[in-house]
Amino acid sequence: MTPAKFIGYFRLLEHCAGSGCPVCRLVIDDTSQYLETLLYEHVTDPEARRGLRASWGFCNWHAFMLFDIDGSRSGAAIIYEDVVAAAITRIRHLAGRDRPGRFAAWIGRGRRATSALAELYRRRRRCPACVRATENEDRYLRAMIAFVDEPDFRAAYAGSDGLCVPHIVRTLELAAGEARLDALVERTLSKWARLREDLGGFVRKQDYRNTEPYTEREALCYSRAFETISGARGLFGNDAHGRGRPR
Predict the structure, then answer these.
(1) If DSSP states are collapsed to H, E and C, what string results for the chain?
(2) Least packed by Cβ within 10 Å: which of 134, 191, 195, 247?
(3) Are 187 and 153 within 8 A, CB to CB?
(4) What gap in Å lies between CA 193 and CA 198, rounded to an integer?
(5) How many other C-beta atoms are found inside a 10 Å radius of the C-beta of residue 19?
(6) Going by C-beta distance under 8 Å and a sequence separation of 6 or more, which residues neighbour residue 241?
(7) 78 within 8 A of 55, measured Cβ to Cβ
(8) How far apart are CA 73 and CA 62, in angstroms?
(9) How far apart are the C-alpha atoms of 2 and 143, rounded to whole Å?
(10) Any residues with CB less than 8 A from the CB of 183 and at least 6 apart, and which?
């Protein structure tokens, strides 16, 4: 039985008309709206403040998204005054610096003490904006699977750039074994094949003997390739301090 359509489904159709992965664009738009609402309406909300203290503020990506929100400085300063104070308190307590003569002893414990601090930081709660983003992300991907054969969705997706690699991988995780998934994957792979053709044309026309102009798709194909393989800028972070960091 096909589930009822919801507002996110219709927003998905709208974002298929834009450039790039439609789910990436939706998640970015939703996140920006979430941050704006938080700054304007929930800065002093006790539960929101507790959550931000537990997560040590926002992740790098969402913290710097605050610069893009008009009038964000006051609300951001209120939030981060609290977050900075919490960080000072935690580290002072762990180091024993809140008790006379203990800081030097903490340093003397060497690797064990610093590992405890690193573990405390690693165990912090997830960035609340990231939690919201991944919940929305999964909802949009499930909607794509549920309505993959709907005529209006098929038409909208046909005109889109298709899902990026991270989002098609996530879709495979969410819907492993579902027959409807094959259609979405095949339509996406055909878009990637077209992108590869555009990249080939762009490379071929780099030859100094070439006189043929770039098509509009070829002129932008390399930036489309970045997003197709890695997702929208900033959305999936990097591996420098995560799973890709050598131990």
Answers:
(1) CCCCCCHHHHHHHHHHCCCCCHHHHHHHHHHHHHHHHHHHHCCCCHHHHHHHHHCCCCCHHHHHHHHHCCCCHHHHHHHHHHHHHHHHHHHHHHHCCCCCCHHHHHHHCCHHHHHHHHHHHHCCCCCHHHHHHHHHHHHHHHHHHHCCCCHHHHHHHHCCCCCCHHHHHHHHHHCCCCCHHHHHHHHHHHHHHHHHHHHHHHHHCCCCCCCCCCCHHHHCHHHHHHHHHHCCCCCCCCCCCCCCCCC
(2) 247
(3) no
(4) 9
(5) 13
(6) none
(7) no
(8) 14
(9) 10
(10) 148, 149
Quick one: what percent of the chain has pLDDT higher than 90?
57
Higher pLDDT, 142 or 6: 142
Contact 231, 166 (CB under 8 A): yes
Predicted pLDDT of residue 56? 94
Note the pTM of the prediction, 2 decimals.
0.83
Q: Report yes or no: 191 and 158 within 8 Å, Cβ to Cβ.
A: no
CB 145 within 8 A of CB 180: yes
